[in-house]
Amino acid sequence: MPAPSLGDYLALSAVLFAIGAAGVFVRRNLITILLSIEIMLNAVNLTFVAFGRALGSADGQIIVFFVMTVAAAEAAVGLAIVITLFRHRESLNPDSFTALKW
Amino acid sequence: MAQAIAFYFIAACILGFAVLVVTTRDTVHSVLFLVLDFLFVAALYVLLGAQFLAAIQVLVYAGGIVVLYLFVVMLVNLKRPPEAHEDPHRRTKLGFGLAAAVLLELGAIAVYGSVNPAAPMPATPAIPVSGNTEQVGWLLYTSYLIPFEIASMLLLVAMIGAIVLAKREL
Amino acid sequence: MISSLNAIVPMLCVTAAGLAAMVAESFRDPGERMPIAGLGIVGLVGAAVATLLLWNHNVSSFGVVSADNFGLFVTWILIIVGALSIAFSGPTVERERLPAGEYYALMLFAIAGMMLMATASDLLIIFLALEVLSIAVYVLTGIRRDSAQASEAAFKYFLLGAFSSTFFLYGIAFTYGLTGSTHLDRVGSLIAAQAMAPTPMQLLAVGFLLVGFAFKVSAVPFHMWTPDAYEGAPPAVTGFMSTGVKAAAFAAFARVFLTAFEPLRGDWGVILSVVAGATMIVGTVVGVAQSNVKRMLAYSSIAHGGYLLVALIAANDVGKGAVLFYLLTYAVTNLGAFGVIAVLDNGDRANDRVSDYAGLWNEHPGLAALMTIFLLSLGGFPPMAGFIAKWYVFSAAVKAGDNALAIIGVLTSVVSVFFYLRIVVMMYMTSSSQPLRFPAVPKIASVALAVSAILIFYLGILPTRVLDWAAESISTIF
Q1: What domain range includes position B62?
Q2: Total structural domains within chain B
Q3: Helices C100-119 & C123-141 angle (0-180, nearest 10)
Q4: Which of A85, C132, C171, C315 would bridge with C151, disulfide CB 3.0–4.6 Å?
Q5: Is 60 exceeded by the pLDDT of residue B92?
Q6: Do A100 and C139 count as a contact with CB atoms less than 8 A apart?
Q7: A15 has a chain B CB within 8 A of its CB
């Protein structure tokens, strides 16, 4: 069995990205949709680290560090919006949104 | 060989848990599967020689972000609006209990400190002197100084935003 | 060391004003009135002075933020956007009892993020700046927490924004893997040096970056969030995000695609032409059917995004300056229109349906006249700035050989005149059934509206100087 190559890592992250993207489209629960976006971000992070390793530089890891910051910031604001939404709707299904067409 | 086996095992776990996150009905289970998923991604970072990121992944993602999700899931899954749960007596009891625990802890530290004096701290923490972490640290505070500052601004904006939106009264 | 910070001084001024607004808010007693908006204006004036001092110096901070004339021109547009938005925000903040300190602080941080995005010359910085401005704008969209509509709009905007950010980031990842750098200069030279036929990886990088940008400039088919977000946000915020976010995103768009990915122009040019055509058509056709003024202007802004894309595709000698001139014109005009909507919103009633404008001429002749100017300029009528801007974009497209795009542009402009005129007719020709539904107009807002109208006439009648500046500025990047 050969050692995993860059292509293997890229394929893994591409599949992971696709699973996350599918989750965004398929699921009807706001929290699960946000979790799917986190999976997509992780897939991109994996791509950065794999490329950084292949290029022999630590830049990829630094970028991932910043992406994690962004993910934390997005999660905080996104969940705050979910809470305000829940106060009005008492439901986490986007189909129950009435004021705006989904 | 060992590396390949590790890679395929971890990759299978990552993909399997990702599918579970997306397909599970119960949101709490979904979040818990995400923790496991992120832990395996961290393992993959170790395999890729990015030990620092692996640690950050566990601390920030699995430990911070996902716990935030868990809190919100618990909060919004309540059958009644949160106001109905606000029982002043219960809060007083909880606060009293917390205060007592802190007092106990402080007392224990004081007693322990007076019994075993002068246990010197190790001079250097257990970080490899020239390794992945040092490399990342150097880059972060030299060539990536401006992004670093912008990231701090981003966190400030997110903090203000989250408080403005989620706080009950301003 | 200090001198290398020069390029980010405009952003620092605005950020400092945002921090000052937060500090002022924390010392404010409940119900006490404080001129927090004034702090924002001071910060913007500081940024304007810094921009003037940096002009023509082409300084760069740490190699990742370059204050070249292109970035500075967009910074100027953003300063105007910021000042007008703050002026229009006063009535909304007071009436809706929004947290003033946080509101203005978020707006100022968003402006700082936009400036950074316009001057960044590194994909990582562009991404971080994009996130700073996006997160601030998501919160501003949902800042009316007692409104279910605002919360839903904020969530929808957030969800699609975060989703598109991951695509943008994936594009950056492939660019990094391809060239080993995120710096635009190095990316550009490496792509130019690579093989003539584009590799799949290059196409993936370009494609993902395109999707990310298309979401941010609300190009078809990634425009779904725009009408809802624009309708749900307070009108002053809508004006702000429809102009500021667009200006910043287009600046970065132009910089990334006309410098770093210029060698692949044959590939992205085709995709972008299709997107631009679809954007103009969908924005106009769906806009005609709207009965809510904010939704209508949302579709109008989608269509205007399409015209800007045309300018970007046809970036030749004629079209180079057109991008910046169009951005400036569009910013002033659209902000003016949303300023009128913000002023007419009286708390109990949003007054944002087309039928609400019946008889506005009788009650507020001044406002009706100003709204007419803004709408006619959006439609591209001759004495206004909108006409000159469209003229340059379309003639650039013809010169570049994109006749189809030019024809679609002209046709959609003609169709769009119908929906702009519908409001004008409503204001003048019909009389209102219920008098005195509109609130009194605050002084600062009316001054800002007048300034926008004057700018529109100035840019429409004496455009040469600004056009020359625009053409000169964009020639600093390519």
Answers
A1: 1-78
A2: 2
A3: 150
A4: A85
A5: no
A6: no
A7: yes
